[in-house]
Specification:
By secondary structure, the protein is of the alpha/beta class. The protein has helices spanning 62-73, 109-117, 126-139, 159-162, 168-174, 183-197, 249-259, 263-272, 275-280, 286-294, 298-322, 332-337, 339-346, 358-361, 387-413, and strands at 2-8, 13-20, 25-34, 41-46, 53-57, 89-94, 105-106, 145-149, 205-211, 215-221, 224-228, 327-331, 369-370, 379-382. It has an 8-stranded mixed sheet, with helices on both faces. Strands 11-10-9-12-14-13 form a 6-stranded mixed sheet, with helices on both faces. Strand 3 and strand 4 form a beta hairpin. The protein is globular. The chain starts with a strand and ends with a helix. The structure holds adenosine-5'-diphosphate. Adenosine-5'-diphosphate is lined by residues 212-214, 241, 285-287, 290, 332-334, 337-338, 365. The site of adenosine-5'-diphosphate has 14 residues, from helix 10 and helix 12.
Length: 414
Amino acid sequence: MKILVLNCGSSSLKYQVLEMGANENTLLAKGLVERIGSPNACHTHKVDEREDYKVEKAIANHTEGIKSVLDILTDPVYGVLYSLSQIDAVGHRVAHGGEYFFKSVAVDADVIEKIEKCCELAPLHNPANLTGIKAMAELMPDVPQVAVFDTSFHQSMPDYAYMYALDYSYYEKYKIRRFGFHGTSHKYVAEKACRLAGMRLDKTKLITCHLGNGSSITAIDCGRSVDTSMGFTPVEGVTMGTRSGNLDIGVVTFLMEKEGLDAAGINNLVNKQSGLQGLSGFSSDCRDLVDAEKSGYNRAKLALAKLAYDIKKYIGAYAAVLNGVDMIVFTGGIGENSDRVRELVCTGLDYLGVDFDFEKNAGTRGVDVVLSKPSSKVKVMAVTTNEELVIATDTMNIVNALKEKAAQNENDNN
Ligand code: ADP
């Protein structure tokens, strides 16, 4: 089954085409359309062992962006399909499913209406995701579409974990509560790490650390998310590339007064100018900070120390939430690749039963690997994530189930 995975951002769209088999999956092509809405948008398309396609052109909106993707997928030179009819289904990454969606779903009018209702909760992302869904419905009306939500895995959190201690009426009026994000990644790496370690997910207490430009930590009890560090928005939690993470709200009101900032100004400050970028004063990129730390730049050292300290505090907190922990998993660009951050986080976790293998950790990047010693009570792993694969897998399973149901109905009618 060939699945097109679409991840529409506010001015970009990422895609992959995967051939999904019963036991094996192949990535046929992937690409990115950037600067949608501008006269010099850019479409990059990659197929393994072929020259990349990269063209700058005017792309007015997401429908045109998707048309450009469909054209290149069937191009005689760069394409991987002889006809669009080879696409069996489309899987969409959707940022926010609110309290409506506990799992991925086939898209229909009711689902679209609910995603629309969640636009208020994710004003930058959900409208773009919807544009992608509507554009596909227009361009390929007979192809089934599936929505996979960043939030749905965390819908299992108990109320005392997801509520803020605010006047309850704000929850009733606006759904002010913690939702959490990166759900597809946390779920995927939890399952993968357990499979690789020969442990049963339904009997394991896990803390998964997805560390990238955006980062979140999740406590997973027997396969269910019971708490996660991101909240109503992705700004809560640990220090991130350019996001502040947790902040005393008093700082916000203080800065509003002192700097004359309004809501948009504060939003910009805590989302775009804070985190590793704000602390270091020169980069949000973990690689730059590790290099600068080696050269003795103190603010790079501070930014890395703060990031690792935040993560360590969440690990301690979630070990308490779970009443113990069996495995800690690192993933995302930083978690998979930065031996320095993993080393900083795992130093001094021996009280918890972590016997970290510092030698094995050094230089290890981009692989699935156990980083604790065999004697360690708590296993530590780095595992590569693959959100597109989760979206494609959910899409395949939902479409297959729909087909089975349709066949069953036909049998019953005959
Ligand atoms: P996003 O949240 O945008 O998906 P990624 O998961 O790609 O982000 O992670 C980006 C982060 O990963 C950056 O801070 C980058 O510096 C870091 N990273 C990538 N490769 C390495 C590496 N080899 N060593 C350290 N950090 C790395």
